[in-house]
């Protein structure tokens, strides 16, 4: 997670939006409006030093423009860090469509959005995010080639995200326990949806003792029976005796309350924005001697998957690249321990260092 100071109503009175962009060095913010289709969207290009800005499009009923601006600025910056730390030749971008994803979708709206994306001539490449389905992206694709993750292309990113999370967890085990075996380790996986289920499969194949929770009873029963994982309550999961906590559902589950209860010595999962407050809880985790695998580094399998599609690499290449998350996480947590600096801050530094180094030999895209 990359925290950004939120733009306030006062900022917008005293300063133009561009001042908010300059705070975290965003390159471009494109406001898109089309009365005929009802499209209201914002595309943010944060940084293109490493390559074209890639990041998904989110459709959300924001309460006001300020919320949408804040979200797109924060998310696009996060993509710059994720793409950089993953060693991809991609910058960071994101788009938000302001509207109700249940009632406002149409072919015309997404084709109009696709025209706006196309107008950026490849500086921004879009993909699915919250509120967007594959069919929506096929409509976008009718107007622009700058789309990834289309049906029939690189496919479901969840298995590769789970693989990256699994190997990242093993890297944490190596640092914390002296070897990377997860056999016999007590691991609590919160949320056994697309990524969580594949992760449980890897863990059970290595004979870890796996505990699971999920709000969906059917999913819980399926995963428990298929892999022999033990079901625990939604809140109980924070209190059980465990070695590793793997958040794979919600953000902000590492917070004041849970940190006073968690008995684990590793936090490694696929969920985005795991630390409720990056600075406060990143430091608290370090102080408690817990190894934390920064979320955007450990869950980068999905973006690696679409990068393979973009660069015409094979799925084997993507799998191999995702296995490299082991080394990425190990380097971050080793530096975190050696320098006594929270892991999230080290991850940010590593991402920034790569951008600065490559920036010396390359003009922005
Ligand atoms: N799918 C990917 O490739 C990918 C890539 C990067 C990051 N992520 C992140 O990983 C997480 C999981 O993604 P996913 O694709 O598996 O999503 P998903 O929706 O398929 O699975 C999430 C699961 O969490 C469950 N859940 C919701 N609230 C819960 C709660 N309070 N307690 C326990 N379980 C709860 C849901 O019922 C669901 O089964 C998300 O945070 C997502 O943003 C996913």
UniProtKB/TrEMBL annotation:
NAD(+) binds at residues 191-196. The active site is at 94 (proton donor/acceptor). Gene3D superfamilies: Leucine Dehydrogenase, chain A, domain 1, NAD(P)-binding Rossmann-like Domain. Pfam families: ELFV_dehydrog, ELFV_dehydrog_N. InterPro entries: Aminoacid_DH-like_N_sf, Glu/Leu/Phe/Val/Trp_DH, Glu/Leu/Phe/Val/Trp_DH_C, Glu/Leu/Phe/Val/Trp_DH_dimer, Glu/Phe/Leu/Val/Trp_DH_bac/arc, NAD(P)-bd_dom_sf. GO terms for biological process: amino acid metabolic process. GO terms for molecular function: nucleotide binding; oxidoreductase activity, acting on the CH-NH2 group of donors, NAD or NADP as acceptor. Transmembrane segments: none annotated. Keywords: NAD, Nucleotide-binding, Oxidoreductase. Coiled coil: none annotated. Belongs to the Glu/Leu/Phe/Val dehydrogenases family. This is Leucine dehydrogenase. The lineage of its organism: Bacteria, Pseudomonadati, Bacteroidota, Flavobacteriia, Flavobacteriales.
